[in-house]
């Protein structure tokens, strides 16, 4: 019988395996609590865990117990009141009021509090971004040798035990045993034949000395055959691994934010929250995603992360300046054949009179043929303006790769984000 012992270390006083099993079992309840927490707290406060409560009735387990009535034998340790044959009075039933999860108003009975526990930062973000992904992410041709995959590259006589090839090692051992035993077996057959021939001779002609020598030779050869090892270190073969370059799934996300005078402080705060949520999502799920931050009013500039979120610069509105800058950066630094290209734009929809048509042409003719996905969020409680209407024509041209949503207040950020980056069943 084979015994498997799991010696994987768990954290002190915790069982990681049981915790993961618990999180998976009550995933629906935890996800609902996480969504409520996201709507309560600010996006800048997303990097800490969360206290989650599950109603007691939802974690109750079925229990087998004896029904009422019948004759039963019970051992009651420490009993000083009853003896065998006594009848025990039924419970009055007035003290057992509310059971688990029945915590309604009452002057009697007992209840059970909700089961509460704390999600770590990693677990919290896992539930926040569950079911989300970058749409249409593709494997691009190799750009550098950083991304490799270890593949088998033949066999070697040297290696570590975890890479041993059982089948090839046993085959080598079998071949070695055949090769080592063949001449011994041939000599053994000859000795046996000679012994039989000697024993068939008449008693007068039989040579006792020769017979003794043959028997000793046979015994020696049989010991040599038995001494051939079943497997030897010479037989062992190990899988050889080599690093094989792999196509890269690297991507770049352009974060484009309108900071013109028409964007109120509330609009800018909502845009920053949206991009912070996007930043956390990319940081959590992707290792090879670069971020390019672009701010624009009448002119667009590529800025640092710090300046993107906290600069106080403002001005008029020409959206095409940002789109032109994004196109130039792509041509200069991010070849289409090597990068997955994404753009997320946040604006209040206000734009210079004749610039919206230019934006549409830039998207249809230059940007969208290169991009994997374009997400546009318009932050306004009012009716849509010309930019939105021009973008609707872009949606008709690229229905799978161009998406636009409206955000009215801060509570809309998370639902809109999930709609824009929800997991697709198929990728183009």
TrEMBL record:
Any one Pfam family match given in the protein's UniProt record, by short name: DUF444
Positions of region (Disordered): 84-111
Biased composition (Gly residues): 93-106
Family: Belongs to the UPF0229 family.
Protein name: UPF0229 protein HALTITAN_2078
Record organism: Vreelandella titanicae BH1
Organism phylogeny: Bacteria, Pseudomonadati, Pseudomonadota, Gammaproteobacteria, Oceanospirillales
């Amino acid at each position: 019988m084979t015994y498997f012992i799991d010696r994987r270390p768990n954290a002190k006083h915790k069982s990681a395996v049981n915790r993961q099993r618990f999180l998976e079992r009550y995933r629906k309840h935890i996800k609902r609590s996480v969504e409520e927490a996201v709507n309560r707290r600010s996006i800048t406060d997303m990097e800490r865990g969360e206290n989650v409560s599950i109603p007691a009735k939802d974690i109750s387990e079925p229990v087998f117990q004896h029904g009422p009535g019948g004759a039963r034998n019970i051992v009651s340790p420490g009993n000083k009141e009853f003896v065998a044959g006594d009848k025990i009075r039924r419970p009055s039933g007035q003290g057992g009021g509310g059971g688990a999860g029945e915590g309604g108003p009452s002057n009697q009975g007992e209840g059970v509090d909700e089961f509460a526990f704390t999600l770590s930062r990693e677990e919290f973000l896992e539930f926040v971004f569950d079911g989300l992904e970058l749409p249409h992410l593709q494997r691009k041709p190799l750009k550098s040798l950083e991304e490799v995959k270890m593949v088998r590259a033949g066999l070697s006589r040297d290696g570590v035990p975890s890479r041993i090839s059982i089948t090839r090692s046993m085959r080598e051992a079998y071949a070695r045993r055949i090769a080592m035993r063949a001449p011994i077996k041939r000599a053994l057959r000859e000795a046996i034949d000679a012994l039989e021939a000697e024993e068939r001779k008449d008693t007068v002609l039989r040579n006792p000395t020769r017979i003794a020598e043959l028997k000793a030779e046979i015994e020696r050869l049989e010991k040599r055959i038995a001494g051939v090892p079943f497997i030897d270190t010479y037989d062992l073969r190990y899988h050889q691994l080599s690093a094989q370059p792999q196509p890269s799934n690297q991507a770049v996300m352009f974060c484009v934010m309108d900071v013109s005078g028409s964007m109120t402080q509330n609009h800018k705060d909502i845009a920053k929250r949206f991009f912070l949520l996007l930043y956390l999502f990319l940081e959590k799920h992707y290792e090879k995603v670069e971020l390019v931050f672009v701010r624009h009013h009448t002119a667009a500039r590529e800025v640092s992360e710090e300046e993107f979120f906290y600069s106080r610069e403002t001005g008029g509105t020409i959206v095409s300046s940002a789109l032109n800058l994004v196109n130039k950066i792509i041509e200069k630094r991010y070849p289409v054949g090597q990068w997955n290209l994404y753009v997320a734009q946040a604006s209040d929809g206000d734009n210079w009179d004749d610039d919206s048509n230019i934006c549409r042409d830039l998207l249809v003719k230059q940007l969208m043929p290169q991009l994997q996905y374009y997400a546009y969020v318009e932050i306004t409680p009012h009716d849509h303006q010309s930019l939105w209407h021009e973008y609707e024509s872009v949606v008709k041209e690229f229905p799978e790769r161009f998406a636009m949503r409206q955000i009215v207040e801060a509570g809309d950020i998370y639902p809109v984000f999930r709609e824009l980056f929800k997991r697709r069943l198929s990728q183009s």
